[in-house]
Amino acid sequence: MLPHELVAKHVVPELRGLLVHRLNDKGFGQLRIARLLSISQPMVSKYLSVSPSEYLDRLSSLGLDAGEVLRTVDVLVECLLSGKYYDYFKLLNAYLNSILKDGSLCNYHRRLSSLVPKSCDLCFRAFERAEDPYVEEVRTAYELLSLHPRGSDIIPEVGMNIVAAPPNASNFKDIVGYSGRIVKVSNKVFAVGDPIRGGSKHTASVLLAVMRRFHGVRSTVVVKYDRLCIEKLLNSGLNVVNIGPYSSVKDFFTSLEDVLYKLSKEPDVIADAGGLGIEPVIYVFSGSAINAVKKALKCVE
Hints:
With 301 residues, this protein is an alpha+beta fold. Helices cover 51% and strands 12% of the residues.
């Protein structure tokens, strides 16, 4: 079985099952789901007869990271809901190529066939220049923010960033963020630069600090510090943690580590009061960039 056959037979159907369930949860009828995914209505019904946890368990048994699967599904659903079918195909293709490139399916492939040598690096070489699914995730999250009628209202004076990290990130260079800032221009959201690995040092460093304590957190977005925003986030049932004021950026990270060490539950929000010459901001966290932006937009709902 070729690597592409392996993905087509054992990965794509499980992902499609998760997509069907997610669209169904959003209130879509079976006919509409069938049209969106280019499958038949009876096939949609068949996918719904299996629980989402079973699809996820099957993918995990192949060697895929469950958190990465779910965040990919989140972004794919957003692409479908906004009618961006090219972006949907592009992200799905990038994700499938990435799991072949990083060797996630190698052990499973060898279990299926003794002909696959332990030294095989075919997929790594074939997809050495594969598109980065984290870049596509951050780009889609930015579009969600920019298309919101009040998205620009949550941008700080100094600008903001959206960052997303793979599970093995150990340095800011591993994390995808915009190479410039996301700013407000005439009540519009405007990105300076493109999402790239290592695009944001400070926001990525904040995310890394949280990830070291809470492994399920993989993304953050920085928004304007506003008391009403904090109240809305609290009233939404989110876990809001306050930090600051402090005297320097170094003191901020020291305080952040101390606060995180004392927490028993992962933070949804860290309200940073800032310090002398340092603008206060709000960090909103989630398992994916899409969900982090959705949480942040509660401030203007």
